[in-house]
Structures are given as C-alpha cells and as structure tokens.
Known about the structure:
The complex is a heterodimer of chains A (623) and B (102).
Chain A: E1 6-9, E2 11-14, E3 17-25, E4 29-31, H1 40-66, H2 77-86, H3 89-102, H4 106-122, H5 127-131, H6 133-148, E5 162-166, H7 171-176, E6 182-187, H8 195-203, E7 207-209, H9 214-217, E8 223-227, E9 232-235, H10 239-261, E10 276-281, H11 287-292, E11 298-302, H12 305-308, H13 316-330, E12 335-338, H14 365-371, H15 373-386, E13 393-397, H16 403-423, E14 433-437, H17 440-444, H18 446-452, E15 455-458, H19 460-467, H20 486-501, E16 505-508, H21 519-524, E17 529-532, H22 537-546, H23 549-559, H24 565-579, H25 581-586, H26 598-610, E18 620-622
Helix pairs in contact in A: 1-2, 1-3, 1-6, 2-6, 3-4, 4-6, 10-22, 13-15, 14-15, 14-16, 15-16
Chain B: E1 15-21, H1 30-40, E2 46-51, E3 54-57, H2 61-66, E4 74-80, H3 84-96
Antiparallel strand pairs in B: 1-4, 2-3, 2-4
Amino acid sequence: xxxxxxxxxxxxxxxxxxxxxxxxxxxxxxxxxxxxxxxxxxxxxxxxxxxxxxxxxxxxxxxxxxxxxxxxxxxxxxxxxxxxxxxxxxxxxxxxxxxxxxxxxxxxxxxxxxxxxxxxxxxxxxxxxxxxxxxxxxxxxxxxxxxxxxxxxxxxxxxxxxxxxxxxxxxxxxxxxxxxxxxxxxxxxxxxxxxxxxxxxxxxxxxxxxxxxxxxxxxxxxxxxxxxxxxxxxxxxxxxxxxxxxxxxxxxxxxxxxxxxxxxxxxxxxxxxxxxxxxxxxxxxxxxxxxxxxxxxxxxxxxxxxxxxxxxxxxxxxxxxxxxxxxxxxxxxxxxxxxxxxxxxxxxxxxxxxxxxxxxxxxxxxxxxxxxxxxxxxxxxxxxxxxxxxxxxxxxxxxxxxxxxxxxxxxxxxxxxxxxxxxxxxxxxxxxxxxxxxxxxxxxxxxxxxxxxxxxxxxxxxxxxxxxxxxxxxxxxxxxxxxxxxxxxxxxxxxxxxxxxxxxxxxxxxxxxxxxxxxxxxxxxxxxxxxxxxxxxxxxxxxxxxxxxxxxxxxxxxxxxxxxxxxxxxxxxxxxxxxxxxxxxxxxxxxxxxxxxxxxxxxxxxxxxxxxxxxxxxxxxxx
Amino acid sequence: xxxxxxxxxxxxxxxxxxxxxxxxxxxxxxxxxxxxxxxxxxxxxxxxxxxxxxxxxxxxxxxxxxxxxxxxxxxxxxxxxxxxxxxxxxxxxxxxxxxxxx
Lengths: 623, 102
C-alpha cells in the first residue's frame, strides 16, 4: 500500500475508461521448459503425460471432423493427415524414445522431434512435399499446448467483470470474449487496425493495444485503470487516481449518452451539406448496433466471416440465406456487399496452403477470387439472389488494381447472372456495381474506372498500406503508417474528383472514416458518404453537425500544401481543439499521433531475451 | 501387378514383395499418402516401401511423403507378417483405382 502506481502509454483504440480487476492471459507463446526426468516411475509418467496429450489431440481433431459440413467431407483428409502425424513414428515413437533414452521431458522431446522433422523435410526437393511441414508444425503446436495445459479457450476461465490483459489475441480468441464480463482490454501487440482493436470498437469496450510489457506489469486480481482514448494504462493506481478516473468516466458517459441520443438525425453540416453516414459490419448480429447508432445504410458488409470461421467452405444456400436475411433486415436502406477479401493463407483449411514470401502483395482478395472462379461465382450467385426481393443490395469488388482486372471480375459476375437465368432464379438486374479504391494504380486510372461503375468506395487501410509501402501489422514500421500523409490525402482527392467528374458517388469505408478527428478533412475532400463501425457513428455525426463544409474545404486546401504528415497533424489538432472543444476535451487528439522508432527497437530486444534456451533455436513458438 | 493370393495359414509369418508404378498425375501427395497409410494400418504386418534405394516405413505418412513419389515412380513394397498378403492385395486395388484420381 502507499507505493506509487505504474503508468504505461499504449495506443488507445477504443475509447472509454475502465477501472477494475485485472485478468492476465498469457499464452501467445508456448514456452518449452527444459528439464530432465529420471527414474523409471517419473519416466513412465512422462510418457503417459505425452500419451494423454496425443489422445486429447486425437479427440479434438475428431470432433472438428464431425462438425464439418457433410458435402465437404472430401476435404477432411487434412484432418486425417494430422491424426496420422500424431501417431507417426517420427513424432510419436521418437518422443517416447527421447523421454526414455535421453530422459528429456515431453515438451523438450517433442520440440526436438519437430526440429528433426524440419531437417528431414527442408532437404527435400519437391516444394509441395516440403511445405507439408506446416502440417507437422500444426500438430506439434496442438500437442505443445496440450502438454502445457494451455487450453485454446483460456478466456473461458473468467468468472467476474474484469479488464483482460494479454500479449496477443487471435481472431478466434477475440470472438470468444465474454462481453458481459469484459470491462476493458489491454493487449501488448497490435495497432489501431489490428483485429483486436476492430473487435473492441465494435463491442464498445475500452481497449489499449501496443501496451508493452502489460502482462509482466499486471498482477491477476489487482485493480487497474485504462483509458481507451488516450492509451494510458495505470497499474496499481493510487486512491486519487481512482477517484479522478471515476469522475472522468462519469463525464464521458454523460457526453456519449447525449450525442448518441441525437445520432438518429440526418448528418448535415451547419451550412446544409448532407453526408450519408453508413456502417461497416461483419456479422448479421451487428444490424442491431447499426440501427441503434443511426446508420443510414450498410456501406461495407465484409463477407469473409462465413468463409473463415469454419473448417470448410460454405455452400451457396448457406450464403444466400445469410445475405438475404441481412438485406431484408436493412430494407429499404442499402447494403453494400464486398466480395470475398482474404489472403490465400485463410483458405488453407480446404486448399493446400500457398507459401508466399509477401502475402500482402500476393494471392489475395479479388485476385484470389479470380484464381478460384468456382468459389467466386458461387458467392456472386448468392449475393445476386439475395438482391431479388428487396433490391437494396449493392456489390463491390475489393483490391481492384485497374480496368483490366475489373472487367475480368465483371465477366465472372456476368457468368453468375447467366447461370441464375438458366436456373430461373430471380435477382436484381439493376444491382449497382462499384469498386473499392485501395490500390494506388486504381487511383491513377480512376477516371477510366469511374466510367465502368456506379460508385467508388475508398478503402483507406489498404490504400495507405500500399501507397506508403507500409505493412501496418509490422511493428517495426507501423509508426510510418500515416493516414494524414500528404500523399494519401492527395490520392483520396484524386479518386473523389475523378468519381465526381463521372457523376458517381464516392464513399470512404476505411478506419479513417470512423475517426472523429479526421471528419473535417474528409468533409473538405468532398466525400459523399462515410462508412464506419456502428459505434463510431454518434461521434462522427456529432462532429459533422457542428462543422461547416466551407471551412473544411478551405482547411483542406491549406493542408494539401503541407509537406509532412506531422505538419498536417499539428494543424488539424490545433483546429480540432479550437472548433470542437466539447469532443476533444474527452478525446485527446494527439493520441492518434504515431509514436517514433525508439520504442520499437526496445520491443524487439525484449522478445529475443524471452526466447533464451539451453539448446539454441526453437525454444519458443509464436502462434 | 501380380500378387500371390493363395490362402496362408493365419498364424504364419509371411514375407512378400511387389513392385508398383505410381499411376496418378499428382503422384503420392498428402491425400494419397493418407489413403495408403489408412489402408495398410488395417493389416497386421510390417510394410516397407523402397524407392531409389531409400527404404521407409509404409505405415508412416511422413516417411511416405518424404520419399517423394511423382507420377511414374517405381516403388517396391515389402510386407511381412500374418496379414502381408492382404495388405499387398488391398494396396494393389488402391493403385489400380489410381487413388480415385486421374
């Protein structure tokens, strides 16, 4: 008692203040302990422990197989392969031998067997066969987790309302979070656009990411404070800090309540400029939030979910039913469906995985669809059919790089239409078709694309990543991911101007659209609609209604003459604090400023220390 | 692909071998290897596969994959144990069917 609190600065990605007990989840890395077992009894017990891990893995794989769609049983062989690897002599017999003859513990023995298997496979000439080592690794990881007693669903142990602290959360973990018990979320990895951040925002839970060492600094059950707007995390807070933050929490909640009450009104600036404020969603269940927060349409429906969260590909009927239900729930408001936008790695469950040195520039998104045309046509048929009754579905292709690729995708759409005509299935013949503008080359030819489509939707996350050549999830360069980079702003302006010249509407649907601080800039760039996470709508609408589009346009004119993102940022923060004091009193506009290089090096160092092991490489596996 | 199909007394150890040519276009890839391993594991015998002088355990999927057998590979299968004949004849059937592929 009485000692001072510890504060760390992370990145606030989902606003709100949480004060509560800490629940530490530490299982991103599987630690492989090194110790020996000796004596007949302990050795045999170690063998039995390994056997139990294998049996559990066998049962888990079996139950995954049972849950698979019957028409896709063809693909279950990969699970058979995994089950066989479990009992393969290179793994199973070798581990038992290492435990008995070298007295290694089961984890270390398994790790050694895996390293040997890697050596065997690395030497093979055939690239396909060589890549099957990934199956061995998947099995190895499953066993290591079982041996370490790390359940995949570690989050199920939560029994009271807590702030969850983790080093990293996989999309599957995040999907399992028990919302009603979650006060807040602190994660060591990730950035504003990481999956955890997106989930936290859509669940409306205060969240701080990039909080280095948070798992080491926090103690299970202790009180902590997080500010999901500024990114501040306070461990072991003092009495004063606690009461101070309770006050802030109360004021903030009152403010949010007030603007949420007004969010059903149309978004219109003080000088009468109408903007359509729409929602990005991934799940059908989010329609409630869409309506509650006053969205005028769905500007982006991410269709990946039904492909990713299952072992196998869904069929046309399943997709059609989901899509139609969504269209019916939203009618007469528009639902903009984006076709499958995933990387090849996400399809590995039912397709031999493609090894890519550079997946962001690889077989993903619309390219992947053009590669697997049957799959693409199947999805297009489902979307087309969903449009039949309510006629409120718009379609857009992601990651289009130019006219050629667009025409190719449209050809597949044409084929899907013909198939439906042959099957005498109805659909909306006039369904509006658009493209996402997220590759710089698409901006360069935006005038030509604009002649082919009925709308543009600017996906800023990828547009920033590709135009600045920044991998936004790479922590070493994440600080260069600058939405306010003058180059990015100019690209957006070019796309908007080209669209308007051709008489089509231009929407923005990246993370940028949901960030209140960017509202003045986006208004000034003349975007017609903003699409964002439903929870961001009240704040964005509130700022739109307080802004004047004339001021925003002249502000943008000034900003476009600046050379660096830092200058744009400074000018914007200054203007925001002056014009919108009510909002930015609560949400520190400087919290969005990317942090410099120095902390990155420190983080990389910490990680390599954590991996020290008596036998060199391979002591810990990142998953 | 001749195979000795006479009935053997069930308790006798038998050593048999037979040559095969990998018939399918994709060769012994993961799905095919899984089929082979699943099949031969039903028989009470040891089973070895030899190609280009490398001899591996035919009941191990990793061994079988690492042998690398594209279309046209010539392999020798050696089986020993009371079910050796059954394993070989079942395996011959599987090769005959091209593993259900082209």
